[in-house]
Amino acid sequence: MLVIDNIIKRCFTLYYGDAKVFKKLYISHLLTTITLQKFKLFTFDKLFSMKLKFLFLFIFFSFSNLSFILAQFSWAQVGVNGLTCSACSRSVEMSIRKLSFVDSVIMNLEHTDGKIIFKKGSKVEIDKIAKAFTDAGFSVRSLYTGITIENISVANDCCWNFENNTYHFIKVTESKEFKGTVSLKFIGDKYMPKSEYKEWKPYLSNPCVSLVNIDASSSKTYYVTLF
Amino acid sequence: MLHHPKRIMLLYFKRCVSASVILLFVKSNLAFSQELFPHSEPASNIAKGVLGIRIANEGFNEITQFRSQQNFRFMFGITSKLMITESFLFSNHHGYYFPSDFIKQDADNGYYTNGVARGRENLYQFESMNLNIKYRFLSRDGEKQHFRMSGYLELAGGNEAHYEAEPNLTGDNGGIGAGITATQLKNKFAVSLTVGGIIPHKYHYQLKDSTLDVKYGNAITAILSFGRLCLPAHYKSYNQTNINIYAEFVGKIYGGASVVDKGNNVAIINFPALGAGSYVEFRPSVQFIFHSNLRVDLSVGEPIINQSYAHIAPMYYFTIQRYFYFK
Fold first, then answer.
1. Is B80 within 8 Å of A135 when comparing Cβ atoms?
2. B313 near A110, Cβ under 8 Å?
3. Which among A160, B37, B41, B139 counts the fewest CB atoms within 10 Å?
4. pTM to 2 decimals?
5. Interface of A with B in 2-41 (CB under 8 A)
C-alpha cells in the first residue's frame, strides 16, 4: 500500500508541480480509499489492488482540473471598432451570448465596448470571444480580462499553463506576486488594431524563460501583459 | 381624380417624408451615423448565423392603375464576410405575355413594333426571384467609424413581358448583375456608393413557332446614399426607438431594347420607353428601428434628371424588416 501511495504522490507532484495541490488531492484520495473499505470493498482491493489503484489514479487525473481550480477568468472588457448602431450592437451581443462559458453581456454603445461576465467553473476560451465579435462583422479594439488567481509570481516572459492553454507574460517591467483578481491585456492581431499590433510584435518572439504549471498538452499560446 | 382619397393620402405621405428628411438633415448634430440604407446595401454584412426577413412594398400610380410590388427578402450571414440574399417578388406590373401584335413583320419594313399599352389591368402574380451573394473584402475599422468595401453578384430568374428597355433584376428581368460597394462611416455621416452592371436575359416572344426574342438593354447602375441617426441622442438601452434619415440618389444608364432572331438583331425598337436612356432619382427616407430589431422604412422617389419609364413618379416605399437570432 505504501509503495503504491508513494507512486501516486510522485505522479501528482510531477503533474501539478505543487505540494499544496498534492496535499488536497492526496487527502481526497485517502478519503475515497477509506470509503471504499467501509463498503467492504477491501477484499476487492486485495484481489485487484494494483488495477483498482490505477483506476483511482485515472479517475483522479480525469477530474483533477475540475476539482481544484487554481484560477478563474471572471470578466472581459472588449472594445469594438466599427460599431455605430444599436441593431449592430444587439447582433454582437447575440453572437457573444452563444458562447457556452458566457454568463451575461452588457454592451455600451456610447463607448462602443462590451463587458462580459463568465460562468463560474467553466473553461474560458479568449480566442472564441474575439471570433464572436468578428463573426458579427466588427473588429476588436482591445481585450482585457479579470482573472482570479490563488497565488502566482509573474516575471517578464514567464509562461503559465492554465486549462490547457499557455499564457505568456510580456513587457512585465518587474516581477510581481499576485493574489486575487489580476487584469490582463491580451496581445495579438485578433485583439487590437493592426497599427497597435505592430508595436507589440517584437515582444512576441521571445521564448519562455520560466514555466509555471507547464503542461505538454497545452494547445494554444496567448500573449498577455499586466494591466 | 386629384381629390381621390388615396391620392391625397399618398401626396401627404410624400410631403411628410420629404419635409422631415430635409429638416432633420439640417438640424441634427449628433455623434452617430447609420448605414442601413433603404435603397441600397451597405458594404457591411449581416452578422454570421443571423437571418433577416424583409418585406418591401413599393407602389406608384399608372393612369388608372395603382401598381404595387412586394419583395419578400431573406438574408443570411454565412460567415462574417459572406452573406446571401434571396428575394421573391410579386407585382401587378406586367403580364407574362406581350399583346399578340407587339412585333409585326411586313415585306417593306421587316420587323417592327407597335406602341405599348399604359394603364393596362394586370393580374397580381409572381414576378421573379433574385439571388444575391455579397462578399466584404475590405474593412478599415476605427472607433465609431469604418471604411468598408464589398462586391456582389446577383442572379435573377424571371421572364416578364415589360415595355421598357430598362432592365431591373428585382422584378422585371432575369439576368446577371455584379457590382462594388464602398461605405464610409464617420461620426456624423454615413456615405455609401454602389456601382454595378446588369446584363438581362432575352425575353422569348410568346408565339409558339417564333424564333424571336426581345433583348432588353444592358445597364450601369449607381446609388449614392447618405444616412444619419437622429434619435436617440444618447444610447441607453436596446428599447429606445431609433430614428434615422437617409437621402439617396439612384441612377441608371441603359441601352435600348431590340428584337433578336436567332441571335441577330432584326429590329431596333424606337418607342421612347424601349429606347436607350438614363435617369437619376432622389429618394429621401425616414427609418424607425424598434427594440434594435424591427425596422420600418418610409420613403418616396422623385426623378431629378430625366425619368424612368419602368415606373412613374412619385414612387412610394414602405418596408418592414426583422432579424432572427439562432442559438
1. yes
2. no
3. B139
4. 0.75
5. none
